[in-house]
Design a protein that fits this description.
about 180 residues, mainly alpha, Tetracycline Repressor, domain 2
Length: about 180
């Protein structure tokens, strides 16, 4: 792993564990065993590091959830839901940090343009699916679908230790694929 990736991995873990505001650049440097100069070379600032982490999470979401448009809408929703639940388990630390930074006013301000860009991308991709399934209600169903996934992610990542993720997955797949 190169130093830039190491910094991102360490910062993600520290920001997720301690919070962005409670983690100093010095602590990231010490844990990653890199100099402050290297962090500032790659990211310009602590805010820049946060923006890079958030952008990478958006890239993961795009790769894992938004590139399934080969089949019909129902096939795509099935692939998307399976990918979404797999990603929740696989990328838990990255996603926990996302929930945290989006929820905090100071960090949300740092990434608000990236949040808007991600939200728009997710909405457009989702609406394209629901336009095929139910053009009349596509907008409302898209918002509802996104809200359900956001709620599931929030509850799994931040609230319940014993969240029944597999049961929820099964019920959601039945709901959207057996209409």
């Amino acid at each position: 792993m190169d130093k830039k990736e190491q910094i991102i991995e360490v910062a993600t873990a520290l920001f997720a564990e301690k919070g962005f505001e409670n983690t100093s650049i010095s602590e990231v440097c010490e844990t990653a065993k890199v100099s402050k100069g290297l962090i500032f070379h790659h990211f310009k600032s602590k805010n820049g590091l946060l923006r890079e982490i958030f952008s990478r999470t958006t890239d993961m979401i795009k790769k894992n959830n938004l590139n399934h448009n080969d089949g019909n809408a129902y096939d795509t929703i099935s692939l998307l839901l399976n990918s979404f639940f797999d990603q929740l388990k696989r990328d838990k630390t990255f996603l926990q940090l996302n929930v945290s930074v989006i929820s905090q006013p100071t960090t949300r301000e740092i990434i608000k343009d990236l949040v808007k860009e991600r939200a728009d991308l997710i909405f457009r991709s989702t609406k394209k699916l629901f336009d095929e399934i139910d053009p009349i209600n596509a907008t409302a169903k898209s918002y509802m679908f996104i809200s359900e996934l956001d709620g599931i992610a929030l509850n799994y990542l931040s609230i319940f230790n014993d969240y029944p993720l597999e049961e929820i997955k099964s019920l959601l797949i039945k709901k959207y694929l057996h209409q």
